[in-house]
Prior knowledge:
heterodimer; A: mainly alpha; MetI-like fold; 2 domains; extended; B: mainly alpha; two-stranded antiparallel ribbon
Amino acid sequence: MTATTATSTRFQQLIAEQQASLTPRRKIVNAVMLSLTGLMTLLALIPLFWIVGYVIYKGGQQLNLDFFTQLPRPLGMDGGGVLHAIQGTVVITLLAAVFATPPGVLAAFYAARFPNTPLGVALRFSTDVLSGVPSIVIGLFAYALIVKPMGHYSGLAGGIAMAILMLPTIIRTTEEMLKLVPHALREGSLALGAPEWKTSIIVLFPAALNGVITGFLLAIARAAGETAPLLFTALGNERYDIGTIVRNGVAQNQSFLQILERIVDQPVDSLPLTLWKYAQQPYPERVEQSWAVALVLMIFVLLINVLARLWVEARKRRLQG
Amino acid sequence: MWVVENGIEMTKQISIPPERHWFSRLQRITRHGDSPWQAIIIVMAVLVMVLMLAIGWMLWRESADARAAFGWGFLTPSLDTSWDPVNDKFEAWPFIYGTLLTALTAIVLAIPISLGVAIFMSELCPDWLRMPLNWLVELLAAIPSVVYGLWGIFVFLPLVVTPVGGALFETLGKVPMLNVLFTGPIPPSGASRLGAAFILTIMIIPTITAVTRDVLLSIPSSQREAALALGATQWETIWQVLLPYGLSGILGAVILGLGRALGETMAVTMVIGNSIEGSPSLLRPGYTMASVIANEFAEAVTKLHTQALIEIGLVLFFMTLLLNMVARLLVWRVARRTPQEARA
């Protein structure tokens, strides 16, 4: 030790001094910056708790059974609910699921089977990019594609807009889950003489099914909360009531398809759309109701998210052993 | 093809009654049905890509008249623009300006916060905390944007944005160069571009955080260990080693966030005040491209009005398309590079 200090040059001494003087500063910087990251995390989570807490507080006061079972009453009358919007949300989401799931799952089979072919890379790339297209632009697309040729707004157009929004989520999660299925399963099936398509449908798909359902649920949660694509496709309809449509249809002896057409082929409302309209009205009772709508919407979306994630975690752990 | 034709020949030879032809043909196809199966999944894969082109083409076609009528003047910056449905004269600059200003402000505010959260989640937090934190951040992304808007109008704007805006007006509003952006006064309701920027910040934090965290987690731990072994503190490791290593991925995350901020519609429409006034200030009400479409499209009467709105949608589509492509390429580059260097 002494030898090195004795032979050290002026330059080495300077460096040693420099480091000695810097050490406390480096420690302080370290401590400050690391605690700043923790602080940022807290800051980012404040809005979450604030929103969730406030919506539960305000919406909880408004929520009652009528809210789920009644149509809106004219202004000035007490009570009334948002049955029309709940039914509309269900109709639009179901339509979207029906349109988005088959192509999404099949495209995911391609992406999982041929990830490195040019088409596979292009598919994953365009899926990613599609998920970044603003929902309002997709609404414009659905308007130009469906509403304009048909000449009127409809739940069908809303469902198709939602399907386009759901597509990327479904493709990505299905693809990831298919990739998690062990290779031995697929090889075993092929070795037994099953053709590729049979292996895919009978062996791979059931093995990945839980994950597929998870992705599907997440996609539904996203679609149920979206408003922008519905503004000029589904438009909104305060008198929408499936019960009445079905009763009238049965009374007039209409066929199943005719009734279905009447359910789908007219403007419908949805929960986020109702929330948006109510929040902008100058009547306090409407604004109060919009908080209840927000609560229902939020509980629905958060619940699906939590369930889906619990499910996917459990599934991953099982598949990875 | 070969199987099918052969199938027909076979059925002819053993002379099955003609009404069963289609059935045995179908059986042939399904028994060795790999080519139909592949055809189906290829068609579906191509469909997804065609969808992107279709969106662009449809918006392009539907805005033809507006593009012909207004040309590039529709998009160029100018101080006195008009948006006049009565006289069918439309220029989109105020909306483009509003979109860019709010989105960029949101990005500037969101970068330090998201980086902090991502660093905390990937480098610092104990294992038991990682999972719940991950969930909370994802829940933040899952809250519907109308709920953000509702909370924004009645809680966030009056309680946070109005005081902050007032303070900014008092301080930065007096700085010579900056005062263009901070001329006030902020409306008492708080509805302003600043409010929109704040809400956007909250909404894009999960996007940037999630991607940045994945990028940081994909960095091989040999990098961390080497830096720590050389005597760097943990912060120096993060700042001088990890962040430069993942820089292109983090840049990708930021661009993704920017894309999301540009396209966000409902929450912004509810808090930005929706007015076309000349002031370029952050503290005044404004309009964005997405919110003008949301507000006016369903009520647009003249053909040119509709088409002008669709053209705004087209511009928005191209902007987000470009940003997303760049962002994905950047993120992919990090993901592709990492395993090779980890092996080396």
